């Protein structure tokens, strides 16, 4: 599998080999276990049972619950109860996640994800998410065939199932070999749709999953072809969305794909990026400059467009008050914009016009 995280070029003898912004850890947080509260379907007896087995003596209960999941004689209600209790047992206790997987729960939980019962599907998705939080379980979950059912839940599930499916796919994508498999299963357009139409949590989960998946080069192209630039630009333009940083990091990752550049421009990204350079936070300014640098590095047309948008004054201000890394990038971009018709490319010849 080919991963592509590089971003750099040489211009007028100067090498800019690190255009990416590496400080993404605080912009993206891993999806945690499901953030649901208690479940109204849980009886008082069931609650007492779960509380009593929250200790180290939960092995028998786990085997009992897995047996109910797997049995062909179990009713839908019994499967729901078993899945719900497994979901709760795996929510906060890492040791239970390993026990549940070792007890053989993964395959029957995956089968629930394909259920026509929305609640049963949701419980199955969320239990798989909780189990995937344990690194030791990720290979087992993927090799047991979870990816395609999770993608279907992302398409047809309840809002909670979609959010948790996105989180589960994110967790599985942290194993490098799974990134392409997830992309080829049709997840990318569905995550782009969730990014565009979902609530705040859905947007956050979708952007985090896309950021992870798009370290694989072929997934970057899939994301661009799925129309990701539209929601990214819209979210970056809305400073009240709390999605500016996440969206900008995803956009920066996509810029190594040539198709991303005309898509960004067509969706009105240039004025949004220039505004971020002018009024964003220090981190937002730096990543916006990085994106503009990658946009302009080989295109006289795009340089002229960025310059006409009024980028030079805020860039000059950034060279005086930004971080050392932001200053370097701002200076490089100013140099490009002040020679918009030179057409010097990274190999010393004439650059393309687009």
From TrEMBL:
Keyword Glycoprotein: no
PANTHER family: ARM REPEAT SUPERFAMILY PROTEIN, U BOX DOMAIN-CONTAINING
GO terms (BP aspect): protein ubiquitination
Described function: Functions as an E3 ubiquitin ligase.
Recorded superkingdom: Eukaryota
Stretches that traverse the bilayer: none
Enzymatic reactions: S-ubiquitinyl-[E2 ubiquitin-conjugating enzyme]-L-cysteine + [acceptor protein]-L-lysine = [E2 ubiquitin-conjugating enzyme]-L-cysteine + N(6)-ubiquitinyl-[acceptor protein]-L-lysine
InterPro entries: ARM-like, ARM-type_fold, ARM_PUB, Armadillo
EC numbers on record: 2.3.2.27
ARM repeats: 104-146, 186-228
Pathway membership: Protein modification; protein ubiquitination
Protein name: RING-type E3 ubiquitin transferase
GO molecular function: ubiquitin protein ligase activity
Key words, A-Z: Repeat, Transferase, Ubl conjugation pathway
Annotated organism of origin: Brassica campestris (Field mustard)
EC class of the enzyme, as a word: transferase
Domain U-box residue range list: 64-339
């Amino acid at each position: 599998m080919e991963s592509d995280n590089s971003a750099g070029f040489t211009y007028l003898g100067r090498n800019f080999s690190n255009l990416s912004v590496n400080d993404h850890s605080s912009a993206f947080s891993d999806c945690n276990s499901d953030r649901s509260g208690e479940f109204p379907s849980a009886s008082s007896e069931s609650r007492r049972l779960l509380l009593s087995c929250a200790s180290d003596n939960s092995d028998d209960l786990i085997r009992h619950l897995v047996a109910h999941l797997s049995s062909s004689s179990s009713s839908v209600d019994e499967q729901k109860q078993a899945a719900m209790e497994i979901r709760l047992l795996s929510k906060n206790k890492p040791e239970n996640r390993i026990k549940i997987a070792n007890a053989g729960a993964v395959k029957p939980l995956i089968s629930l994800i394909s259920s026509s019962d929305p609640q049963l599907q949701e419980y199955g998705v969320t239990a798989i998410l909780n189990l995937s939080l344990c690194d030791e379980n990720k290979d087992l979950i993927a090799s047991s065939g979870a990816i395609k059912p999770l993608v279907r839940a992302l398409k047809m599930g309840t809002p909670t199932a979609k959010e948790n499916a996105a989180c589960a796919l994110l967790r599985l994508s942290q194993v490098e070999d799974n990134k392409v498999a997830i992309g080829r299963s049709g997840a990318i357009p569905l995550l782009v749709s969730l990014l565009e139409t979902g609530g705040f949590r859905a947007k956050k989960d979708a952007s985090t999953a896309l950021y992870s998946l798009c370290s694989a080069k072929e997934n970057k192209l899939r994301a661009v072809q799925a129309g990701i630039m539209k929601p990214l630009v819209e979210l970056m333009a809305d400073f009240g969305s709390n999605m500016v940083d996440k969206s900008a990091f995803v956009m920066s990752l996509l810029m190594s794909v040539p198709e991303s550049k005309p898509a960004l421009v067509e969706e009105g990204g240039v004025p949004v990026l220039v505004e971020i350079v002018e009024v964003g936070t220090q981190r937002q300014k730096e990543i916006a400059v990085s994106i503009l640098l990658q946009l302009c590095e080989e295109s006289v047309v795009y340089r002229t467009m960025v310059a006409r948008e009024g980028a030079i004054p805020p860039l000059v201000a950034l060279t005086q008050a930004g971080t050392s890394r932001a200053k370097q990038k701002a200076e490089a971009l100013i140099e490009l914009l002040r020679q918009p018709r030179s057409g010097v490319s990274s190999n010393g010849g004439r650059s393309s016009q687009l």
